[in-house]
Design a protein that fits this description.
Layout lengths: L1 H15 L2 H69 L9 H11 L3 E8 L4 E5 L27 E2 L3 E2 L9 E11 L2 E10 L1 H9 L7 E5 L5 E3 L3 H5 L7 H4 L5 E4 L5 E7 L6 E7 H34 L4 H14 L14 H42 L2 H16 L3 H19 L5 E3 H18 L4 E7 L7 E3 L4 H10 L8 E10 L2 E8 L6 H8 L4 H4 L3 H12 L4 E7 L3 E9 L2
Parallel strand pairs: 13-15
Antiparallel strand pairs: 1-2, 1-6, 3-5, 4-5, 5-6, 7-8, 7-11, 9-10, 10-11, 12-14, 15-16, 16-18, 17-18
Helix pairs in contact: 2-3, 2-7, 9-16, 10-11, 11-12
Length: 575
């Protein structure tokens, strides 16, 4: 019996030390831990997704509410401006004022009353006519009247109970504005029914228990669906949390509430939405955690069983793949692996083969890019001395010399010499931005003389970036396009503006002309570089060279509109 137990123990020890068992145990334990962590991760991600969804819902609700409130305030502004325009008419008679106020009152269903208050604070005119003004000393002493803002064009009060007329105590929002009528100073006072807005906000729901409220620019409560409860101190609102907060979505420190804020620009009021995270999370999180647990247990059992079978196939395929990969070190890129015993190794094998193919493609791509760059540089070299431009310039110099315009001829010769000197640049590809601008100025000087001042030009540049380097001849092609496609066809004098701007990590060169603009068809031809005679080396060539030298994030952009002009944007890196 003892010997039998000893034999069984020996066989067990050997089995446990085998590679297959060790791999099976390792894979099983690792898989179980991985699934556990992944399940926890999914649970956390799901909770965060729900929180973000709650934030989005709250923000959308508040945004819609703020838009509604903004529109209402805009309508109030429009009504006030309409009445003010009528009151300011010089031909308006005293007996026409009540009729004007009455008409405006009847046309606006949310208006409670319209009044004109004199400088002493007494009501001089009002609508509707059936109201009876209360005997008050002056409206200027009432708390809602903002004395400090009387000089503004239009002022909004906080909501308050109207107490200007007998038996009329409605919840209103007052709009006031100074106005002069036949040399007399008045205050136009329009009271709007605030209950219409209140009824809208009462219908706004955010989740099961969420709600919206409004505070003014001093963080005082203007509207709340539970205003009476708050006034009795039976409920506290998170006004301190809202104070000094910018527009956005926030989560309170206790993680119980999501608060969204949107500001009304015309009044400084804030629409605040409050939602309860627990309402959104509790039920969903409980369900997802239960499902995650069942999935985890099921997958753990299945993976443990599968790892026992899979482990025996792991060692040999991996060894074979390592042998193949070692051949790459000897620059043998035609060696592939075809291990496909199970999905993971097959995917790894496929990824390796794809990587080899990608490396080979990159090698071909680098070779092609080098060839393309060589051709592009050759095009630039050919464009440095454009035979048509040089011939036309020399012909203009000869023509001016024969007619005794020595000053103009001398100016063109100097500009041409400077242009050629910068273009050649001792064979180099890079020049400073100041040299590129000097090249452009020389070109424009020549063309301005040739065109007999048919256009004017200006060059503005940030001096701090003039020493930065760039590839040469990137501005001249666009100046050619501006002249040939825009200004040459104009009847009036045209203009070209060159601006070099510092954009933090980048440099922007803008070339703007007020020519006839470029149609989409011609713009396509120019971008493709087909109009070589009129477009110089072509926009496409400049764009390609910039991207080849500096990267895909730089290049050329074009904005053009017929009969208005064209703006070229050249983006370059800072050296």
């Amino acid at each position: 019996m003892f010997n039998y137990i000893k034999q069984v123990s020996s066989r067990w020890n050997k089995k446990m030390r085998s590679l297959q068992v060790i791999l099976a145990l390792a894979l099983g334990i690792l898989s179980v831990i991985t699934i556990l962590l992944f399940s926890i991760f999914l649970s956390v991600i799901f909770e965060e997704t729900l929180i973000n969804q709650t934030k989005i819902t709250t923000r959308q609700s508040v945004t819609q509410s703020s838009i509604t409130l903004t529109n209402e305030i805009a309508n109030m502004n429009a009504t006030a401006y309409g009445i003010l325009d009528e009151l300011k008419k010089t031909a308006l008679q005293d007996d026409q004022i009540p009729e004007l106020l009455g008409t405006s009152f009847r046309l606006n269903r949310n208006v409670v009353s319209i009044s004109l208050v004199d400088e002493k604070g007494k009501i001089s005119y009002y609508a509707p006519s059936q109201y009876t003004p209360k005997k008050i000393e002056t409206i200027y002493d009432q708390r809602w009247f903002q004395k400090e803002k009387r000089n503004e064009q239009i002022t909004f009060s906080s909501p308050h109970v109207q107490n200007l007329f007998e038996k009329n105590y409605q919840w209103v929002l007052s709009v006031t504005s100074p106005v002069t009528i036949q040399a007399e100073r008045y205050i136009l006072l329009i009271d709007y029914n605030f209950n219409s807005l209140g009824s809208y906000f009462n219908k706004v729901t955010i989740g099961k228990r969420g709600y919206s409220f409004i505070v003014d620019e001093k963080n005082r409560l203007i509207y709340h669906p539970q205003q009476r409860i708050i006034q009795t101190n039976a409920k506290e609102e998170k006004l301190d949390f809202v104070k000094d907060k910018a527009d956005g979505v926030y989560v309170t420190q206790d993680q119980n509430n999501t608060i969204a804020i949107a500001t009304i620009p015309s009044t400084g009021w804030k629409v605040v939405g409050v939602s309860y995270l627990k309402d959104s999370l509790q039920e969903a999180v409980s369900e997802i955690r239960k499902n995650t647990l069942w999935i985890f247990l099921t997958l753990a059992i299945l993976i443990t069983l599968m790892s026992i079978s899979v482990s025996r196939y792991i060692a040999r395929p991996i060894t074979n793949m390592v042998k193949v990969m070692r051949d790459v070190n000897d620059n043998k890129f035609d060696v592939y692996t075809h291990e496909n015993r199970f999905t993971e190794i097959q995917q790894l094998s496929g990824s390796y083969n794809h990587l080899i193919d990608h490396v080979k493609e990159l090698m071909v791509q680098v070779k092609e890019e080098q060839e393309e760059l060589r051709k592009s540089e050759m095009t630039v070299l050919q464009a440095q001395i454009n035979p048509h431009f040089l011939y036309n310039t020399l012909e203009s110099i000869l023509w001016m010399s024969e007619r005794g315009n020595n000053q103009g001829a001398s100016q063109m010769v100097a500009a041409l010499g400077k242009l050629l000197r910068i273009s050649l640049n001792k064979g180099g590809n890079y020049i400073s931005i100041s040299q590129e601008l000097a090249h452009a100025q020389s070109y424009l000087t020549i063309q301005q003389i040739r065109y007999k001042n048919q256009f004017q030009y200006s060059i503005e540049a940030d001096e701090s970036i003039l020493t930065n380097t760039t590839i040469k001849i990137i501005i001249q092609p666009f100046l050619e396009n501006a002249l040939y496609h825009g200004i040459e066809r104009m009847v009036d004098e045209g203009s070209i503006a060159i601006r070099v701007l510092d954009k933090k990590e980048r440099i922007l060169i803008e070339i703007e002309d007020d020519g006839i603009g470029i149609s989409p068809e011609i713009l396509q031809v120019i971008e493709e570089g087909k109009d070589s005679e009129k477009g110089g080396i072509g926009i496409r060539n400049v764009h390609q060279r910039i991207q080849m030298y500096f990267g895909k994030e730089y290049g050329v952009g074009i904005e053009s509109e017929l009969d208005k002009g064209t703006i070229i944007s050249i983006w370059l890196p800072k050296s």
